[in-house]
Amino acid sequence: MVDIFPTVKIFSHINLETGQTLNSPFFFKTSNIREEKEKINFGSGISFDQTTGMLHVGSNKVPLHQIVTSGIEQDGSMGVVKQNIHANAPLMMLVLKNYNSILILDKEMYNSTYIQMFFLENYDKNFFELVEKSPYAKVYRVKI
């Protein structure tokens, strides 16, 4: 699902009257992670400078707001660790330990129900109940 998520999300950015795309969400997924001296290289011209907190996208430098690491712990609970980098920066880095992957996404994508429920187990327990959980899938029941 994570591979088609950006395509699905694009549909919420289309003006239904004109068919024009309003703006494109930022989403980058990689498992190609190479740690170097002061930076982490993700391939495709994208790297993260650990000393400055800047994400290098081609020749552009963009400050990173936060690094969030998530993964299922030994006891089955969801472990989430947040590290603040630049207060008003537009992009987030989500490190998915169980998938050996990293997502770099804008705040809108990060705050989506999909990311919050499936990777962070952050949801309104008045409306949803987690009924099945593994590192590969989660099933929620909508409470009526």
What does this structure look like?
With 144 residues, the protein is mainly β. The chain has one domain. It contains 3 helices and 11 strands; from the N terminus they run H-E-E-E-E-E-E-E-E-E-H-H-E-E. The protein has helices spanning 5-10, 107-110, 113-120, and strands spanning 27-30, 34-35, 39-43, 46-49, 54-57, 60-72, 78-84, 91-96, 101-106, 128-133, 138-142. The strands form 2 sheets. Strands 1, 2, 3, 4, 5, 6, 7, 8 and 9 form a 9-stranded mixed β-sheet that branches. The protein has a two-stranded antiparallel sheet with strand order 10-11. A hairpin with a 2-residue loop joins strand 3 and strand 4 (46-49). It is globular. The mean pLDDT is 89.
